[in-house]
Amino acid sequence: MTAIVDFVNSILWGYVLVYGLLGVGVFFTLRLGLLQFVHFGEMIRAIRGSRQSDKSGISPFQALTTSLASRVGTGNLAGVAVALYLGGAGAIFWMWMVALVGMATAYAESTLAQLYKVRDNNGQYRGGPAVYLTKGLNAPWAGSIFAVCLILSFGLIFNAVQANSIADAVEAAFGIPKLWVGIAIAILAGVVIFGGIRSIARFAELVVPFMAGLYVLVALVIMAINITEVPGVLATIVKSAFGLEEAGGGVAGSVTAAMLNGIKRGLFSNEAGMGSAPNIAATATPSPHHPSSQGLVQAFGVFIDTIVICTATAVMILLSGVMEPGSGVTGTELTQLAMEFHIGAAGTYFIAIAILFFAFTSIVANYSYAENALYHLGGGNTVGVTCLRLAALGMVVWGSYQAVVTVFNAADASMGLMATINLIGIVMLSGTVVKLTKDYLAQRKSGEMPRFKLADYPELDKKIDNDIWR
């Protein structure tokens, strides 16, 4: 089994996704007219007016904070440290690149999720790649495969990974046994997820801005103290990406190592193109009432995750000088050492608490994606949802004290298959994304409040829910 999983991962992550993610990101960046750069201000504008919701959906701001809860996890702390250790400083440059072009991919997938969303038996919005693959491409088999992979990776195994990171950090900082940490996390997560999507959204809306803001604030203070060294660190990141400077970590000076580790860790962190965030994007009531508005909001989430938070972690580590090639010190431990260098013994505790918040919010957000997928598979009844919730919490407890590499590698394979199916799907539906984008921007340019007009899209007849968009 290990050999099979490793082989699948070598194909998906060594070839298909490394080039596929960048390729699809560049494709949408060019086809949408450099949307994420030219209309960056429109993303801010979409977020500013995103507090309203209705009885069927959550607010766009809640959808953003929930997707950020998933995106901003251990990848922003431990993942960045791993990328630096294995790929050198240049890995961060490639994380930037996959994020910048990934903003266009994130826009496309969340716009499609909004367009093709449906209502469940309780009148709540549901959607995501499983739905737009089924309805937009008439490929229910692809939608079902995607939904199963999403439940396995995000609903179950990734929650074990996040719990393992929390337990490691808390045990190192406070000496609390991992099993008890896992049980405590499961109880707290259960309180949130048994309240359903709205409970998760309200939780994310309150916690995510606070946790991300505090972390970035600490990083800014550290950079301000070391301001004379920051330009040199940023220059090292860029030079190392092209092998122009041997910067500590991994295969020093290796462009391939930097690229592969940067892209893989970048995707794991910002999830652009993976098809995860569209699951929560679909549950929002868009403001303005147009699918593109939620796409713009979610594209900005990628920027916050990678360009802001991952960069903050990377600069703090590189400024500290604690990274030693071949030392074996990487992941959470490396990030804690860096923070300890900057602020003393309190650094270990700060990172432990940051990981607790980052990973915990990821657990509840990841569950929300899995619940969405379960509804698509027809298991959205009380028994099915309860079983999924209990299984997710069980994986949290198990993952807190077990680090079974094969199982975690299986999650990578499942995530890779998800992303591959999603990338193919959104490219095939790119014509619809382009039409929606031009429509939204044209209305905005003419001074109108953008609004989706069903009559302008006769080709979507019987493919989307007319009641939602009427």
Question: Can you describe this structure?
Answer:
The protein is mainly alpha-helical and 470 residues long. The model is unreliable at 247-253 (pLDDT under 50). It has a single domain, classed as Up-down Bundle (Sodium/glucose cotransporter). A hairpin with a 5-residue loop joins strand 1 and strand 2. It has a two-stranded antiparallel ribbon with strand order 1-2. It contains 20 helices and two strands. The radius of gyration is 21 Å and the shape is globular. It has helices at residues 2-31, 35-38, 40-48, 60-71, 78-87, 90-115, 129-136, 140-174, 178-193, 196-225, 230-241, 255-270, 278-281, 291-320, 331-343, 346-376, 382-401, 405-428, 430-445, 466-469, and strands spanning 118-119, 125-126.
| Rg from alpha-carbon coordinates | 21 Å
What is the CATH architecture annotation?
Answer: Up-down Bundle
Q: Per CATH, what is the topology?
A: Sodium/glucose cotransporter
Strand order of the largest sheet: 1-2
Largest sheet: 2 strands, antiparallel
Range of helix content: over 70%
Keywords, separated by commas or semicolons:
single chain; 470 residues; mainly alpha; Sodium/glucose cotransporter; two-stranded antiparallel sheet; 2 strands; globular
Brief synopsis:
By secondary structure, the protein is an all-alpha fold. The chain has helices at 2-31, 35-38, 40-48, 60-71, 78-87, 90-115, 129-136, 140-174, 178-193, 196-225, 230-241, 255-270, 278-281, 291-320, 331-343, 346-376, 382-401, 405-428, 430-445, 466-469, and strands at 118-119, 125-126.
